Amino acid sequence: MTQIAERPTATGPTDPTARATAWFDRFEAALRARDVAGAVEQFATTSFWRDLVAFSWNLTTVEDRAGVADLLTATLQGTDPHDFRLSEDATEDDGVVTAWFEFTTATGRGRGLARLRDEDGRLVAWTFLTTLFELTGHEEPRGTRRPMGAEHGAQRDRRTWSEKRQEEAASLGSTTQPHVLVIGGGQGGIALGARLRQLGVPSLVIDKHPRPGDQWRSRYKSLCLHDPVWYDHLPYLKFPDNWPVFAPKDKVGDWLEFYTKVMEVPYWSSTTATSASYSEETGTWTVEVEREGQSLTLRPTELVLATGMSGKPNWPTFEGQDVFRGEQQHSSQHPGPDAYRGKKVVVIGSNNSAFDICGALWENDADVTMVQRSSTHIVKSASLMEIGLGDLYSERALAAGMTTEKADLVFASLPYRIMHEFQIPLYDRIREQDADFYARMEAAGFDLDFGADDSGLFMKYLRRGSGYYIDVGAAELVADGEVKLAKGDVARLTEDAVVLKDGTTLPADLVVYATGYGSMNGWAADLISPEVADRVGKVWGLGSDTPKDPGPWEGEQRNMWKPTQQPGLWFHGGNLHQSRHYSLYLALQLKARFEGIATPVFGQAEVHHRS
Prior knowledge:
Blueprint: H1 16-32, H2 36-40, E1 43-52, E2 59-63, H3 64-79, E3 82-86, E4 91-93, E5 96-104, E6 108-119, E7 122-135, H4 161-171, E8 180-183, H5 187-199, E9 203-206, H6 214-217, H7 249-262, E10 267-268, E11 271-279, E12 284-291, E13 294-298, E14 302-305, E15 327-330, E16 344-348, H8 352-363, E17 367-372, E18 377-380, H9 381-389, H10 395-399, H11 404-412, H12 416-433, H13 435-443, H14 457-463, E19 468-471, H15 474-479, E20 484-487, E21 490-493, E22 497-500, E23 505-507, E24 510-513, H16 521-527, H17 530-536, E25 569-571, H18 576-594
Parallel strand pairs: 1-7, 8-9, 8-14, 9-10, 14-25, 15-24, 16-17, 16-24, 17-20, 18-19
Antiparallel strand pairs: 1-2, 3-5, 4-5, 5-6, 6-7, 11-12, 12-13, 21-22, 22-23
Helix pairs in contact: 5-18, 9-12, 16-17
């Protein structure tokens, strides 16, 4: 970058692009000189640098100048960052200069987003996002590098594309071992499988269901995505522009099956992993699987559990469950309302699944009671789309030039430590806009909350992954009394009822436990060992010291998409947005290890919670 005076003067730069360019010139000059102190001076006293793989081979956030010094001291020499450049003109709003940039490292190419503001008469970085998007020499075959497909000329014994795919599929797991085994073939596993395929990493995705997408098809019949389409695209292949805003579950299932085939994801259906063990000596896994009744042994180097962020279903234990004469189901097993017309149903819980199931049962003329055990955050879908997501994920955003990829980076650039400060004003607006709705819910006796600090849905999701409902209509049934509401903890079940601790008796033919899920490391405990699960620790949460997210502060999602304390073990999950965005960084980490690129990890998280 061309050197430009540091501060705007009568003859110096006053526009945000020039100011941002000058900041990057100073920052890069310090990095090239390996002057850590000089680089640190370019950051605000209170500042946040979030790095996704580019510097740290990790997903990590460092805070303030001391954190920046730690990161650069450990990584600067090996990373060799250079060639910082603005990728578009910078903007300025309320004294904050926002600058999109690209850069190069010793191993790849990165992009990022900086927010710069004045402190003590100097422009300094307040938030700083760096991400790796490509490994030099291992670029994906896209754009000008796309494969030819056709092989022109005459060749003896030519093999067609179909024959090559059949040979590859036949050898996988027998004469050819996958370098990466992904257990779980939902949206997370499929997205990661597509990334690894494009990066040329031998991999295999396995799933217990007969077809890709069955994870969605097997859920209750009324299930639809609660997140809008602009938020939900998978890598490489976006939904068509006539795709519904909120896709029904079976349509999502069909898309995942289509996507798996078109993106040539190596995928074994009807396959269950029964055990896994790691050899410290060889650095590989031994994974026993059952595929369509046949026992097989796979020996991957990297093992990814993509079994869902929500982990294992939480089955509560109550006295009398063994004597109850009706049906009992976890919400993950609920088939839908068809068999329960005219039946009395008690749904224990007040989250997304609980409301969806209650609404569908009411539509099918069941007598439904929801049992609320703790307060719940509710946000109306239309309000969430307009106020919470509209600037990043909507037709309005696209028209303003906010692509999905750009929106992902904007969202990623907000440090978790201060993200709630950005969210609180949005939910204040929502609470004001929907005041009548919330008043009606409270009048019905429903206990509402907006999160521990009134920061709403996203922070609840990131911190604990539970305790909320995106209202697509079922909340109105509770407000109107059409779905009955009971509150309190369950004491016991009798032969034909649920009895609460206050003595309330709720007659029931069916009890649905919408009681959520445990940590993903529960899968590791079952598949590998409790010792490995404890070594890894709790999966998900930020350490915010709010309900169900115990401290200490960690600054990133625990154990997600990054190295864990168990070598060769990774976790991948989340909603469609997270599966799309973070699959890139996980795939790049796996690709680098496959190619033998040095990946010294900075900021390896300690384990504070085992369960």
